[in-house]
Amino acid sequence: MSTSEVRLYLISYDITDPRRLQRVHAFLKKHAMPVQYSVFLVRLSERRLVSLLAEINQRIDPRSDDVRAYPLPERCEAVTLGRLYLPDGVHLADPLLGGLLGDGEGDEELREPSPSCDKNGESEEAGEE
Predict the structure, then answer these.
(1) Across 1-129, where does the E strand assignment appear?
(2) What's this model's pTM, rounded to 2 decimal places?
C-alpha cells in the first residue's frame, strides 16, 4: 500500500490517567469519528496516520497507556448490537463508513453479519459451497 492511499482505521485506547484520557479523547474527536467512548474511526493515508499517532504519543504515558490503530479492509461490515452512534435519520455519504456504523435504520434488530473478510478484504466464504 502506498503511504498516500486513503483507507479506514479503527483507533482505540486505554488511558490510565483521567487528565491524559480527557486530552487524548478531545484530540481524537477533532480528527476522527467516535464510535464508542474509547474507539474512533478515521479515514486517512498511512502517512497521516503516522503523524496522528505521533501527536497522540505526545499526550500519553507509554509505560501505562495503550493506543492501537487497526487498518480496516475496504469491503467489511460490522455487526452492531444495541444503541448505534448515529441518531435516527442521520445517514453517511461515505459507503465505507455507512457499512461499518449502520445507517440508523432498524436499530432494534440484529443485523445479519457480512461474510468474514481476510486482511485483503476478500470474503473468506468465497469458493465455499
Answers:
(1) 6-14, 33-36, 39-45, 66-71
(2) 0.66
- CA distances from residue 20 to 61, 62, 86, 117 in whole angstroms, order as listed: 8, 11, 26, 35
CA Rg value for the chain: 16
Instruction: Provide the grid cell at 62.
Output: 507509554
Give the pLDDT confidence of 66-114 residue by residue, as tens digits: 999 999 988 877 777 877 666 455 555 555 555 555 544 444 444 444 4
Q: Which domain holds residue 101?
A: 80-114
For residues 80, 65, 117 and 50, what is the CA-based torsion angle, rounded to 10 degrees?
120
Asked whether residue 92 falls in the same domain as residue 37, the answer is: no
Q: Which grid cell is 83?
A: 444503541
Whether 67 is covered by a domain: the verdict is yes
DSSP 87: P
Give the whole-angstrom CA distance, residue 16 versus residue 64.
6
Domain count, the chain: 2
